[in-house]
Amino acid sequence: MTTENSSAGDAPASTWRATGQKSHELLTCTIKAPIFSYTHLELISESPTTQEALELDNLQVRSYCNAALAQFLGATGSAIPIDILKVEGAQCWLRVPRQDLSPFAAAITAWAGVSDQGSRRVLRVKQCSDYLGAIVGTDGQDKLWSS
User: Fold this and answer.
1) Where do the domains of the chain lie?
2) Which range among 1-5, 22-26, 97-101 has the greatest average pLDDT?
3) Which stretches make up the Ribonucleases P/MRP subunit Pop8-like domain (predicted)?
4) By the 8 A CB rule, do 109 and 122 touch?
């Protein structure tokens, strides 16, 4: 990450606006390699009758993710830190270290899920990104063209 402060003695970067007034750039920040990546997961069920009643909580999310990581990567997968940002209905948003995003997504995708009351429940990776803003505002895009 590179940060430059123009008021710290350097000549400020200035530009002329259309009105003839000078503007000064006060702070420049470039993030080249973010520390964390973000993922949006959804709990889905084989049975359409239980699909509407699916609810996740923090404990289930952590349990399902740890089971998937341990099954796919063993002890190494269990050591991947997961931060649960939000759980809402059958969806959740997680933060993982950037270098662990690919193994995390592969483990969740390969996980067979759990059987509950004769129906299999699995986590589906909806989106992954290095930036949270790229996945937060896209809710409902998958239904846009399917109506």
Assistant:
1) 1-32, 36-132
2) 97-101
3) 36-111
4) no
> What whole-number percentage of the chain has pLDDT above 90?
48
Measuring CA to CA, which residue among 48, 37, 35, 56 is closest to residue 101? 37
CATH number of 36-132: 3.30.70.3250
Q: How many residues does the chain have?
A: 147
**pLDDT tens digit sequence for 24-37:** 777 877 777 889 99
The pair of structure tokens assigned to 101 is 């995003």
pTM of the shown model: 0.72
- Residue 123 · residue 45 · CB < 8 Å: no
Q: How far apart, in Å, are the Cα atoms of 118 and each of 45, 97, 122? A: 10, 35, 13
Report the interhelical angle of 101-110 vs 58-73 (nearest 10°): 100
Q: Quick one: tokens of 58?
A: 């923090």
